[in-house]
Design goal:
With about 375 residues, the protein is α/β, with parallel strands linked by helices. It contains 16 helices and twelve strands. Bound molecules: S-adenosylmethionine (SAM).
Length: about 375
């Protein structure tokens, strides 16, 4: 049955659910091997780096699952100085990372918008546009996205979190600041403007079914997404979602092994379905399995996002408990990742921006 499905030219939703529900080790192995083959065929053997700079944990949003949500008073808030962000970006450039990702909590005030614009301009100036700049700063007005694009950011990450609007509402407060439709509109603005658009979902959210996950994959296909960054939902004890899990009882939360394995299956199926997109092996995978990112690279992922945020601040950017790498320096992360990538016989695309092949074809 699995061989038959893998060979099909087009998958139905039923096929996707069948693959997501695979439980025999041998079948899962076949799925991952096939995804790896497709990856090499469509995007090559190289793994691209995006040095991750988590430059602020100040956030206007109150997402019920997230450790840096506005109402979490236990978080020490920070906003890096421009010089610090620039120093980290230039470190990535010198280390031949090829690209960086600037990420923060969501802010919309004009000072923040200007601050980000200046940073993007400055990084581009200092690196002569040779460093790919991905940004991930949440929902903004279209003009703001345009401003940052004009300043030189070329990729944007904004996860849809789940394509099931009802489930989305369950994990966000019920108010205008947390609207599924706004998030969808933002993804479409980004595409209109000309960004390489990245999105993704959390896997193993309480109440999420395999059909929801199949729909998520079809959502990426329908919205013609260029880059995928998805990973397991991980508990964060100071959030309302976790407190609800504790109250109702753990059965509403899938165990860690399930969430991890399902995340790998989602990556593999996304690779086979979408073929030429960039897919990240996210840090959250490593929080559930020490070899999480290597396993994702063997199941179809082709991008790594080494954290280069300085040691003091990376501890304060904890979206979930047990975030890995919080006591390491950027240099230690680089060395460790290099060992990990080479251990599974992949190559590192040092000095390359690693644009999404899907995007390049799309704009052609
Ligand atoms: N403000 C930007 C935004 O909203 O896109 C970027 C920062 S936001 C914290 C980045 C991502 O972290 C979210 O899209 C979400 O998927 C992920 N995240 C937050 N809490 C998480 C948790 N408990 N487990 C797994 N991922 C989580």
């Amino acid at each position: 049955m699995i061989d038959e499905i893998l060979m099909k030219k087009q998958w139905s939703k039923k096929d996707l659910i069948y693959l997501l529900e695979l439980s025999q080790e041998e079948d899962i192995k076949k799925l991952f091997q096939y995804a790896n083959k497709i990856r090499i065929q469509y995007v090559g053997k190289e793994v691209y780096y995006r040095g991750l700079i988590e430059f602020s944990n100040i956030c206007n949003k109150d997402c019920l699952y997230c450790g840096i949500r506005k109402s979490n008073t236990k978080v020490m808030r920070y906003q890096m100085e421009k010089e610090e962000i620039l120093r980290e970006a230039l470190w990535a450039y010198q280390e031949q990372y090829g690209s960086i990702t600037l990420q923060s909590g969501e802010q919309t005030n004009s000072n923040y918008v200007k601050f980000c614009e200046d940073i993007i301009l400055e990084i581009n100036k200092k690196t002569k546009h040779a460093l790919g700049i991905t940004i991930s700063m949440g929902e903004q007005e279209k003009e703001i996205y345009q401003k940052w694009f004009n300043a030189g950011a070329s990729r944007y990450l904004l996860r849809i979190e789940t394509s099931n609007e009802l489930l989305y509402q369950k994990i966000h407060p019920q108010n205008e600041n947390h609207s599924f439709q706004t998030r969808l509109a933002c993804l479409r603005y980004l595409k209109d403007i000309g960004y390489q658009v990245g999105s993704g979902v959390m896997i193993g959210i309480p109440g999420q079914t395999c059909e929801d996950l199949a729909n998520d994959l079809l959502f990426f296909e329908r919205e013609d997404i260029d880059m995928i960054g998805m990973g397991p939902y991980i508990e964060q004890k100071d959030t309302p979602l976790y407190q609800q899990i504790e109250k109702v009882g753990y059965p509403i939360l899938r165990d860690k092994q399930w969430r991890f394995q399902m995340s790998l299956k989602m990556i593999a199926i996304a690779r086979i379905l979408l073929k030429d997109v960039n897919i990240a092996a996210t840090t959250a995978l490593q929080a559930l399995d020490p070899l999480g990112r290597e396993k994702a690279l063997k199941a179809g992922a082709n991008v790594l996002m080494p954290i280069i945020t300085n040691e003091e601040q990376r501890q304060k950017y904890q979206l979930y408990d047990q975030k890995p790498c919080i006591n390491e320096t950027a240099a230690q992360c680089k060395e460790c990742l290099q060992r990990r990538v080479l251990s599974i016989a992949n190559e590192i695309g040092y000095g390359k921006k690693g644009d999404s092949t899907h995007f390049l074809k799309r704009i052609r």
